[in-house]
Amino acid sequence: MPTASGVLRLLVYRVEPPALAVDGISGPQEHMAVCAGDPRGEEVLARIHSECWTGEVLGSLKCDCREQLDSSLAAIAREGRGVVVYLRQEGRGIGLGNKIRAYALQNAGADTVEANEQLGFAADLRTYELAAAILADLGVLSVALMTNNPEKLAGIEGAGVRVARRVPHWVGLQEHNHDYLEVKRAKLGHRE
Question: Is 101 a catalytic residue?
Answer without folding.
Answer: no
